[in-house]
UniProtKB/TrEMBL annotation:
MF terms in GO: methyltransferase activity
Species of origin: Caloramator proteoclasticus DSM 10124
All copies of domain Methyltransferase, residue ranges: 43-137
Keyword tags: Coiled coil, Methyltransferase, Transferase
Protein name, as recorded: Methyltransferase domain-containing protein
């Protein structure tokens, strides 16, 4: 079972995310600092099926978007075409890409870095960001918090039973690793097709993330609560980092 190998087929329908809220946070944050996004170059890491890619494009960014899943990138390309928008989509691993250019803005949404399950790779990923970010550039990303993964998801089973899609989603925690096993049944004509996905996420504490960022050379780090203009707290479900190089 591979992460996102079949999930792209149903990903958008099952994700309960207010992407507009996230985009409004991005827009307001930079507007309040009198920083213009329009016509500026941006890099998005882990773009998935392109939901935030579209919003970033509508903010006026000249965007390059990376993802390790070809299926997800195909969905993103289809969406951009429907919206009559253009972005450069590349199949790349966020731990090891080298684009030979720098950007004033780098983004990553929807807990992309939780999928990096050891500190060595996390450090490599942040070094890559540092090397691709212009001086005085901004890096904005989020993680699912320890509170969310341990208390709201870990050691729990979730189910969905609809006419067109059903799933059973089991979650197990081993120290700081969350393993998710999801069995889907998707209706195709008169029958249902089964596919299985296994996802692994690392439970990071905000303090650990800041420590790695500081080690790389990032010094100005702000942490917000779930794309709201309030400070992160211990019961936040998502921590949003905004870093200036």
């Amino acid at each position: 079972m591979e992460q996102y190998s079949n999930l792209s087929l149903v990903y958008d329908e099952l994700m309960d995310v207010d992407y507009k809220k996230w985009a409004d946070f991005v827009s307001t944050y930079f507007k309040d600092k009198n920083i213009e996004l329009k016509y500026k170059k941006g890099l998005e890491l882990g773009c998935g099926t392109g939901n935030m890619t579209i919003y970033l494009k509508k903010l006026g960014l000249d965007l390059v978007a990376l993802d390790s899943s070809e299926d997800m990138l195909t969905k993103a390309e289809e969406k951009l075409r429907r919206e009559r928008l253009r972005a450069t989509l590349l199949k790349q691993d966020i731990r090891s890409y080298n684009l030979n250019k720098k950007f004033p803005f780098i983004f990553s949404f929807c807990d992309c870095f939780n999928y990096i399950t050891n500190y060595k790779d996390l450090e490599s990923s942040f070094k890559n960001v540092y090397n691709h970010l212009e001086d005085d550039g901004y890096f904005l990303f989020d993680i699912s918090t320890e509170y969310k993964l341990r208390n709201l998801i870990g050691e729990k089973t979730f189910t969905l039973n609809r006419e067109d899609i059903c799933y059973i989603w089991d979650n197990y925690i081993n120290e700081d690793i969350l393993e998710m096993y999801i069995t889907f049944f998707v209706k195709e004509g008169k029958y249902y097709r089964r596919f299985d996905e296994r996802h692994i996420q690392k439970i990071y504490r905000v303090e650990e993330i800041i420590e790695v960022l500081n080690k790389i050379g990032f010094k100005e780090v702000e942490v917000f609560d779930d794309y709201k203009f309030k400070d992160y707290s211990q019961d936040s479900i998502r921590a949003v980092f905004v870093i200036k190089k």
